[in-house]
Amino acid sequence: MTDPNIACRIVETGTTHSGRWNMACDEWLLESALQNGQAAVRVYAWSRPTVSLGHFQQPDHLDDNSRLVELDQVRRLSGGGAIVHHHEWTYSCAVPPQDHRNRHGDSLYTRVHLALVNLINQVTKPAGQIDTPLQLRGQAPKNDQPALCFARTAADDVVRGSHKVLGSAQRRRRGAILQHGSLLLQQSRFAPEFLGLLDLVPGLKLPDDFSATIAHAIATALHWDASHKPLSPAEQAEIEQLADRPDRQPDQPSRS
Predict the structure, then answer these.
(1) 118 vs 17, 115, 163, 182, 254, CA distance in Å?
(2) Phi, psi of 176 (to 5 degrees)
(3) How far apart, in whole angstroms, are the C-alpha atoms of residue 185 and residue 165?
(4) CB neighbour class for 141 (10 Å; exposed up to 12, middle 13-18, buried from 19)
(5) Residue 58 DSSP code
(6) What pTM was computed for the model?
(7) Which residues lie across from 92 on neighbouring strands?
(8) Element spanning 45, H or E
């Protein structure tokens, strides 16, 4: 007998917030999964270019990159390298402890990434760009763990050719899991060494509701029954309280 599907709440798709609010919302979703057993997905953007540091990174890790030191900085719950959030979609999903299908971290990466690989490859077909489809990297060459996430390599990275366009990270808390990741859409002037999906697939036109399609694809891949339920005013107030904590304020640039 298979486990029944878990109800999933799609909190938002395509909305834009400050970095501190985005990170506070992801933490709130993780706590909701832990306290209330609520599975959730959101897909969002950032109101201004922002660097999110991995949980164990220090701001001075970016001191040798003059393009980044003036940007707002926030710290993620998850580890890994720093990400420049500019022309991209960020997704997050919160897995409650009772979800036995998705409790293994590696399989969670694979399920979400393969769902987005399949979705994006379908979208690229009308552009006539199927000669080099997106795929998981597979065997990853070792590197010296540079400061930026998109310069790092992992087997579950989503790549087109040699270019990484999607990477994710996780945070576990007493059986619940938060996974969030960045889908790079276009080259940023703050990190021009990384090409996005629209750079790599000339002529690609993403549907207007693509962020919502991403959210539903993630929920389906995790065997969740998804329904859209926006945050209530009371829930937004709780997130604002988290966002206003002193450690949520954007770090000051480490040098001028």
Answers:
(1) 28, 5, 17, 16, 40
(2) -90, 155
(3) 8
(4) exposed
(5) -
(6) 0.91
(7) 42, 180
(8) strand 39-46
The alpha carbon of 6 is separated from its chain's Cα centroid by a whole number of angstroms, namely 21
- The distance of Cα 229 from the centroid of its chain, to the nearest Å, equals 20
10-68 pLDDT per residue, tens:
999 999 999 999 999 999 999 999 999 999 999 999 999 999 999 988 777 777 788 88
**116, two tokens:** 């987005």
Residue 254 is predicted with a pLDDT of: 32
State how far the Cα of 26 lies from the Cα of 187, in Å rounded to an integer: 25
Distance between CA atoms of residues 198 and 124, nearest Å: 10
CA distances from 32 to 55, 61, 138 (A): 20, 32, 33
**Separation between Cα atoms, residue 240 and residue 230, nearest integer Å:** 15
Task: For the beta carbon of residue 123, count every other beta carbon within 10 angstroms.
Answer: 18
Residue 196 has pLDDT above 70, yes or no: yes
Look at strands 39-46 and 6-17 and give their pairing: parallel
Distance from the first to the final alpha carbon of the chain = 61
Count of residues in the chain:
256
In angstroms, rounded to a whole number, what is the distance separating the alpha carbons of residues 184 and 187? 8
Structure token digits, residue 147: 């400061």
Name the DSSP class of 78: S
* Side chain identity, residue 86: H
